[in-house]
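Lab notes, practical 5.
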Amino acid sequence: MATYNKRGYKPKNTKEETKVEETHSTTKDVFESLDQGASKTEDFIANNQKVILGVIGVVVVAALGFFLYQEFVQKPKVEEASKEMFYAQQYFNEAVNSTAKDSLYNLALNGANGKFGLLDIIDEYSGTPSANLAQYSAGMAYLNMGKYKEAIEHLQKFDSDDPMLGALALGGIGDAFVQLNQDADALGYYEKAANYNDNEFTAPRYLYKAGITATNLKEYDKALKYFNKIKEDYSSSEEARTIDIYIGKVESLK
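Output from the prediction step:
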């Protein structure tokens, strides 16, 4: 009997079939693995949902609490501190330009007529810009009143990026240490004050004081370095007018 191939009939390719079956099996295994992983994740969430929700709740409450604190506690506190600082600072400014300095500095520090003084502002409004500025003013008030340890305590707590106030605070600490006969400590603060900002007012002022203090400590090379820096870099400053006298004096001592 004659045989023939049916139209469209193709003999099976055993290798291709095997490959397809292997691919199908691999894909099936992957999906089953994913299903198992998803199931484990779901189990974890189901078993620990209270903990997870608790953590999320803590984060949300903390964020909300910070916002509420800033908006309804810190912001009004800053504004209130600023108002109180206005009166205390007025007394301080008057003391600077007055002959009755001690009494006015006392009013600035302790307040009057129901208004807070600088010390009250530091205590009641801690963390505000006004409390920080009050540290500076209180330190300078004590310095001018001859209470040098108190001056150092407050000026060391003052923190500012302002080129003038930052340098003046460091220089004020140096002045207080000089009055306490702690010249080595004073020199360190004068050096910091001189290097704090390169301007025509504070830089030569504290270079000069550093030079004088270094001379008293018999550190003549340091003194010459500071005096020569005034002469070379700040020739138009007030300190430069007589700096040659100091340079000559130190050179004669070496």
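Observations recorded by the TA: The CA atoms of residues 183 and 217 lie 7 Å apart. The two ends are 132 Å apart (CA to CA).
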